[in-house]
Amino acid sequence: MLASHLTEKLEIHFEIEINAPLSKVWAMLASLEGMKEWFGRNLVFEHKIGGRFQMEGELPGEGPYKFTGQVTNLVPESELAFTWKSEVGEKEPWPASTLVTFRLYPTAAGTRVTLDHTGFQALGEALAKSGFEGHVQGWTMSQTLQELKQVVEAAS
Questions:
Q1: CATH for 2-155?
Q2: Within 13 Å, how many C-alpha atoms sit on residue 54's CB side?
Q3: Which of 103, 128, 136, 140 could form a disulfide linkage to 120, CB 3.0–4.6 angstroms apart?
């Protein structure tokens, strides 16, 4: 997996190559059942523009978390984007939402998937940097794209 974050722009970027056709990868992004296999077990995700997104759980050392948002873009076999607002532990919920985007690209070996998390500037100067750094760590620790790769390739 490749990670190439732009710290000065507060942009998180991961990408991975999955040895499966685009249609199989998209199937794991395009349904709640598919997403629960790799993205989050305690998940609400309505796959339509304006649809609700919510994920809850526990972060070691920080307590409960809840991420919420809405689907902003849904292009079959190409892109899934949704807003992302964080509530972690006893901290105040974020005052604004950021944006998470998954994009799929066909390749000779199968499918390249990118995950971008942007828009941290909307949180204000003090929260933007800590939110960015916390989510770089969170996305890295959760191994989101590696989980997607394992689930898709095991099913292929």
A1: 3.30.530.20
A2: 4
A3: 128
Bridge-partner residues for 64, per DSSP? 58
* pLDDT digits (tens), the chain, 156 positions: 777 888 889 999 999 999 999 999 999 999 999 999 999 889 999 999 999 999 998 877 777 889 999 999 999 999 999 999 998 766 788 999 999 999 999 999 999 999 999 999 999 988 999 999 989 998 998 899 999 999 999 987
Residue 15 carries which side chain, given as an amino acid letter?
E
Residue ranges covered by each domain of the chain: 2-155
In the chain, DSSP assigns E strands to 2-3, 12-18, 43-45, 52-59, 63-75, 79-88, 98-106, 111-118
CA 10-54-135 angle, 5° bins: 25
Phi first, then psi, for residue 2 (nearest 5°) are -105, 135
pTM of the model: 0.94
Distance between CA 59 and CA 155 in Å, rounded? Answer: 29
